[in-house]
Amino acid sequence: MTSADLILKNANQVITLAGTSDRPLKGIDTNTLNIIEGGDVAVKDGLILEVGKDLQIGSDKVIDCTGKTVMPGFVDPHTHLIFAGSRENELGMKLEGKTYLEILAAGGGIQRSMGATRKADKAQLMTEAKKRLDTMLLFGTTTVEAKSGYGLNRDHEIKILEVIQALDETHPIDLIPTFMGAHSIPPEHKGNPDGFIDLMISMLPGISEMKLAEFCDIFCEKNVFTREQSERLLRAAQEHGLGAKIHADEIENLGGSDLAAEIGAISAEHLAVTNDMQMKKMGDAGVIGVLLPGTPYALMEEHYPRARAMIENGMALALATDLNPNCWTESMQFIISLACYNLKMTPEEAVVGATINAAHAINRSRVVGSIEAGKQADIIVLDIPNYEHLPYHFGVNHVETVIKKGDIVVYDSRPVF
Ligand code: NIG
Ligand code: FE
Q1: Is any ligand 1 atom within 6 A of the Cβ of residue 111?
Q2: For residue 360, what are the contacts with CB-CB under 8 A and spacing of at least 6?
Q3: Structural domain boundaries, residue 253
Q4: 153 and 228 share one domain
Q5: Among 158, 273, 309, 402, which has the highest number of CB atoms less than 10 A from its own CB?
Q6: The model scores a pTM over 0.90
Q7: What confidence tens digit (pLDDT) does each residue in 122-150 have?
Q8: CA 326–ligand 2 middle distance (angstroms)
């Protein structure tokens, strides 16, 4: 009899998402999830060995999953993980009716976090970010995209990218780095956004050579960067081998999503005020919409992305936390719930958005995002009888066990890493 390092036995549901690695999923239904009822998963050498019912495989380590749901670890494809300090003071300003752009113009928002992040050394940034990663792992996230963007000059942006690299090497969670130096215009470049874009472009060769980032992102927004500036930076990034991502249509529509389609960006993020034509254009071009329902929630805004219209217009959708000092959550479970209740996504669409489509959005669909033989063993066990409980029973942590690259890193909801 073959033997495995670990077997997850008799789960009420194993959400395998088998056969979804080739392209981002559109038109999702229950069949897409490829559920095995009463299923087992065998793990060996950090990989998934076999998935099925009543596997005839032995192992010294067996976890009984009776009554539970087993699924791929969550992939969080959009975070601003590295920042110092916090901005709880802005809640009061929001309650008084101040908008995001007003808070930013008053020296709050990204500017304030930039001040704290520039002051922090690498050790402090590591300590603060590690705590967030620990929480993410406890909540079932096993792969995280992390953006720079609170340094806003050469030295501090590089410092942040190096912290991401160091965390990737030391923490069980895999980190995918994105260079987002063009997150805001720092005070020393006020009135000279084009000069700032030149500076960001001049950093690209070094970043690419040192493999400090896989993607480049920019905040295309009123009072931040224009569509033209975004195009200049992202095309330069592509020439240096970085994939393009763009924060588009979060508050005002500057045509960032048209740009995403035209340059073949891997994803466009936020999309709260995107129009139907732009959705169609992105759907046709294969740009994945990364939706961040935590952000309008934290901004107390009525405008949530129109997920249903995006799906009708042929877009594949992924979900992410946007973890940042404005929208601070580590929980993809909370995001799944918001996606269903506020974006009107189905539980199936939300599960796909938080796993395989999220993996597609960071070019990791061959490695993670589904439970299939040969894929990395990034698996979670949730104490719920079926996946619909994920959005339905919200505000708590359902994750009991987390397997990362075949190792048990969370057991009985407690860290063992
Ligand atoms: O994606 N919109 C730009 N960046 C972040 C917010 C950053 C911040 O407020 O610190 C976002 O929502
Ligand atoms: Fe963001």
Answers
A1: no
A2: 23, 24, 288, 316, 318, 369
A3: 75-360
A4: yes
A5: 402
A6: yes
A7: 999 999 999 999 999 999 999 999 999 99
A8: 10
